[in-house]
Amino acid sequence: MPILNRAAELQDEIAGWRRTLHQTPELNYDVHQTAAFVAEKLKSFGCDEVVSGIGRTGVVGLIRGTLGAGATVGLRADMDALPITEATGKPYASTNPGKMHACGHDGHTAMLLGAAKYLAETRNFAGAVAVIFQPAEEGGAGGLAMVEDGMMDRFGIAQVFGMHNMPGLPVGQFALRPGPIMAATAEFTITVKGKGGHAAMPHRAIDPIVVGSQIVTALQTIASRTIDPIDSVVVTVTKFHGGDAYNVIPEQIELAGTVRTLKKEVAQAARERLHAICAGIAGAHGASVTIDYDSNYPVTFNHAEETVLAGNVAATIAGDGQVHREIQPVMGGEDFSYMLEARPGAFIFIGNGDTANLHHPAYDFNDEAIPHGVSYWVRLAETALAA
């Protein structure tokens, strides 16, 4: 079964919504304008319930089917943007300086709105569909906030599904896998304190820049010499701040970065090794070190039965040969992981074509993907809630 005729008919309208959202990006939980736009659309579609303020600024619309009693399935999209200055040159580019939809959340929101419009028109399912619009995916754990606000129990959600666009995957194709599909994330800040002094007299100082440089290099041995090569781990230092003058050895410097893993035991081993490396190198130089280590999003783990369902539904839209069912895990993080910890479900990627990568100033969501995404959401709901 190819894309729905109605989804193709709605493409231009949905693309218009997407471009409106693209012009007015908002960050983290401060998505008030976006949430109001979503709530107004859901009410205009005739959703049975539209509830705002879940998880601070999240929105949930409930659509009841006409085929009798049944479970409730949750379909989730994210609404927030990124603190990036846009460089697409599009006529609908961001009008909010320093903010842009560089991850396609505008497209995710628009596609789910399109699916909600169709499902509210047809209601060809038993039970109910909860369309979930989440704030603060980009580091704010909005998914956790909505779960902790009681969303799953309030709407009786039995299964939950998510979708994200993937640059490089052709439009019309889908990709997923059972088990871990995206990584657990952690962030660290390492402060190295030495002894400041004159750059021409380093023997009278304890140089924290030298200490920090050795720490950066040694942290790479976590992946190469600590963790089983079969397992996945990424340790990346993304910040190195220290010093203000050419002729002054600073008193202290600061490093920061991220750790990504697919298993809890690997995450723990990486954390322990990071602390040991920092303490050992600092101690060898007579410096001191403090570490702020924050474990963030857990692994995004697809449940087996729901992954099969999602893959089969995608195949009805795209054809079986266009659904990649055993992709390699992506080491990026995703707070849909919290919803998958609360309820069984699956996360799938949809092709965005040959575009700039996510989180790049030149990225733009591909509107040609809209009918494929809307069709997937509709068929997923109707299949999961078949009478």
Topology:
Elements: H1 5-23, H2 32-45, E1 49-54, E2 58-64, E3 72-78, H3 105-122, E4 128-134, H4 142-148, H5 151-154, E5 157-166, E6 174-175, E7 179-182, E8 184-193, E9 197-198, H6 208-219, H7 221-226, E10 233-241, E11 248-249, E12 252-261, H8 264-285, E13 288-295, E14 300-302, H9 304-318, E15 323-324, H10 336-342, E16 345-351, H11 370-384
Parallel strand pairs: 3-4, 3-5, 5-16, 6-15
Antiparallel strand pairs: 1-2, 2-4, 6-16, 7-14, 8-12, 8-13, 9-11, 10-12
In short:
With 387 residues, the chain is of the alpha/beta class. 36% of the residues lie in helices and 25% in strands. The chain folds into two domains: 5-182 and 299-384, 3-Layer(aba) Sandwich (Aminopeptidase); 184-295, Alpha-Beta Plaits.
Task: Note down, in words, how this protein is organized.
The protein is of the alpha/beta class and 387 residues long. The chain has two domains: 5-182 and 299-384, Zn peptidases (Aminopeptidase, 3-Layer(aba) Sandwich), CATH 3.40.630; 184-295, Alpha-Beta Plaits (2-Layer Sandwich). It has helices at 5-23, 32-45, 105-122, 142-148, 151-154, 208-219, 221-226, 264-285, 304-318, 336-342, 370-384, and strands at residues 49-54, 58-64, 72-78, 128-134, 157-166, 174-175, 179-182, 184-193, 197-198, 233-241, 248-249, 252-261, 288-295, 300-302, 323-324, 345-351. An eight-stranded mixed sheet has the order 1-2-4-3-5-16-6-15, sandwiched between helices. The protein has a four-stranded antiparallel sheet with strand order 10-12-8-13. It has a two-stranded antiparallel ribbon with strand order 7-14. Strand 1 (49-54) and strand 2 form a beta hairpin. Helix 1 (5-23) crosses helix 3, helix 2 (32-45) runs parallel beside helix 3 and helix 3 packs across helix 11. The radius of gyration is 23 Å and the shape is elongated. 50% of the residues are buried. The mean pLDDT is 97.
